[in-house]
Design goal:
alpha+beta; 2 domains; four-stranded antiparallel β-sheet; 7 strands; flat
């Protein structure tokens, strides 16, 4: 359950999935896609705040990133990219792409309105990267990665933190949460020998005051 306030709803992968030529265009025209993602996120945030003021008592911090909201952010960003590219070159091909993504952005916005803005009553923010400390143990030597998520009283899981890394040699490591939010009642830990191989390591949720001992790390494919 990612919150809108966790950061941009869409990612670079979302953008390139919709437009395979995007990176070439951005490089040729000197457009910073990360900045464009951030600006589109801010603009959509203002529109969401206005919608919430008109129709509910919820705040932006309660908004969950739904598939429709992610698409809206994706298309809004792409519209902005091609708007800049068109103004730079006055290229009709860029204008056509701008208009295409403007129409798709409007379509995605209407899907958000029709379905309703996703809301959670107990918002759990994205976790910070956990602290990793070496401890006595016998893991195979190498670098290990760990990340975490917070869990609220309804069992809803927040967005995963960025991964932290630790190198061990004939020892294990302890994963310790940082800055527990008031909504959190527990947490999950994800670990692996690479970021891509990280999988959930705990069964039952861990207490917010409890660390996780990485004495044995199950890894994904």
């Amino acid at each position: 359950m990612a919150l809108f306030t966790d950061g941009p709803a869409a990612s670079m992968e979302d953008l390139t999935a919709q437009d395979s030529q995007l990176l070439n265009v951005a490089n040729a025209e000197g457009i910073d896609l990360t900045v464009k993602l951030g600006l589109a996120h801010q603009a959509i945030g203002l529109e969401l705040e206005e919608l919430l003021r008109r129709s509910s008592s919820y705040r932006l911090a309660n908004v969950v990133v739904s598939p429709a909201l992610r698409l809206w952010h994706t298309y809004r960003t792409l519209e902005s990219v091609y708007q800049d590219a068109y103004h730079s070159q006055l290229n009709d091909r860029y204008a056509a792409k701008r208009d295409q993504f403007r129409g798709l952005s409007k379509w995605a916005y209407e899907r958000v309105i029709q379905a309703g803005v996703g809301i959670t009553l107990m918002p759990v923010p994205r976790a910070l990267s956990p602290e990793l400390q070496p401890v006595a143990g016998a893991l195979p030597d190498g670098v290990y990665y760990a990340a975490m998520t917070w869990i609220n009283a309804a069992g809803e899981e927040g967005a995963c933190s960025p991964a932290a890394a630790i190198e061990v040699g004939g020892e294990a490591f302890l994963v310790i949460p940082r800055e527990v939010p008031t909504e959190a009642v527990g947490w999950n830990v994800y670990a692996g020998a690479t970021e891509e191989a990280m999988v959930r390591q705990n069964g039952a949720r861990l207490a917010v005051t409890e660390g996780w001992l990485g004495a044995a790390v199950a890894c994904g494919a």
